[in-house]
Design a protein that fits this description.
The structure is a homodimer of 217-residue chains. Chain A has 217 residues and is an alpha/beta fold. Chain A has eleven helices and five strands; from the N terminus they run βαβαβαβαβααααααα. Chain A has a five-stranded parallel sheet with strand order 2-1-3-4-5, with helices on both faces. The radius of gyration of chain A is 19 Å and the shape is elongated. The first copy, chain A, starts with a strand and ends with a helix. About 9% of the residues of chain A have low confidence. Chain A binds a DNA duplex (30 and 30 nucleotides) through helix 10.
DNA sequence: TGATAAAAAGGTAATTCTACCTTTTTCATT
DNA sequence: AATGAAAAAGGTAGAATTACCTTTTTATCA
């Protein structure tokens, strides 16, 4: 291999980030361009530093999260390969992110050698999916026409996300209505719509969804 | 300093564990005895390996979590210093764990140099607390008599945890009653008790608590 | 301006959850 | 066998949530 693979790591957990960087530095083929704490930080550093071939990108970050970073990076630098670091394995999220432009997924509790493999794989073949991801993909692609509408349906709009956040803050529908200057009834209707969209039966399921998706500020 | 400080790292996230170990190996004063994936794994390895002076211990782990490990280690090897790795900064947890025998706390998103410092500090002075922890301590010790009862009240027993888990699986009280062969009424009473213990207003707060504490399997 | 879709709000009802009680049952310990 | 504590269950009631509708308002675009 002629040149080294340029890699950037974007994660707000310093300890985790420094750790993985220390590991990757041990590989001769790899060159760590730079690290960043979040999407905003990443794009700032992108101006000055070498453009990476591959970035390892955390999903849950303050300021600018993994999804927003993926979307923006795809527009500005479509040639950069993106590997998403996931905490729990979230199937819906995976298909969603592939549509947004992610090239691979790496559970944060993954074995070390798979981390190395994933970078080689993404760099050479353009993608890396472990078993779980592949399975999720197959399920999703079974009825490929449904993919787009599924995500239009499962994605919450701004107002709905705001309501979910207030629910997670233990507010009741009347309280949320007061907060957002809407009637209790409107909030209730939104709640029903949200439940339908995320496939939850009740408030408990809703909160679980919110936590998994990192909707909580 | 005559001898190196022997350190063990216990964390189920391989990536994180290997990362921090790689970092610590760079410090001359440190010697990494061994790593473990959880409490059970740790005690097994403790039989064969050198007894560490300090262990870095993750709170959220399957099989045997940080709390259980702290308690057991305190009984068997009271001279070993324990630094707890915390995800979010959870005040109640901190005072609780100090009572159980922890010597220091390290948020997982802490700066690198503080990791090194914390190990030196724990080894030499017997403790390490950053600002947040200290503040939490002051608040907790303001009314020192209340400390013990607070934790007895905030801790959930087995049955209560089971109920919380079923709530998080979107089951309703009647369904949980059927599942556990108890009346709906009993479940409702448990729910009330749980809400009181964890200081939640409603199901949303309950689920948030469960997620934060890692009660979900 | 008129058509259309989306957002907001209302109607109604069943179910569930929250709250504060009391009573019964179970179990361990003296 | 008696006691006391904890678990289980019942009573009652009000508030909140879930469910499925219809109607009104708002915004947008042709």
């Amino acid at each position: 291999m002629a040149n080294k693979i340029n890699i950037a790591v974007v994660d707000d957990q310093q300890l985790f980030r420094k750790g993985i960087v220390a590991l990757l530095r041990q590989i001769k083929d790899f060159n760590i361009c730079f690290e960043a704490e979040n999407g905003e930080d990443f794009f700032e550093k992108l101006e000055d530093e070498i453009t990476p071939d591959v970035i390892l990108l955390d999903l849950q970050m303050p300021v600018m999260d993994g999804i927003a970073t993926t979307v923006k990076l795809k527009k500005r630098f479509p040639e950069v390969k993106i590997i998403i670091l996931t905490m729990h394995d979230e199937e819906e999220m995976i298909v969603h992110l592939i549509e947004k432009g992610a090239h691979g997924f790496l559970p944060k509790n993954e074995e070390i050698k798979n981390v190395i493999d994933s970078i080689y794989s993404v760099h050479q073949t353009g993608h890396f999916f472990n078993e779980k991801v592949s399975q999720a993909l197959v399920r999703g692609l079974m009825s490929s026409k449904k993919i787009t509408p599924i995500f239009e349906n499962t994605e919450l709009n701004e107002r709905e996300i705001k309501i979910v956040q207030l629910i997670c803050k233990e507010l009741t529908s009347p309280e949320i209505g007061k907060e957002l200057l809407l009637s209790t009834k409107t909030i209730d209707n939104h709640r029903m719509e949200i439940l339908k969209k995320v496939g939850a039966r009740n408030t408990a399921g809703l909160v679980m969804y919110a936590m998994k998706k990192g909707l909580i500020s």
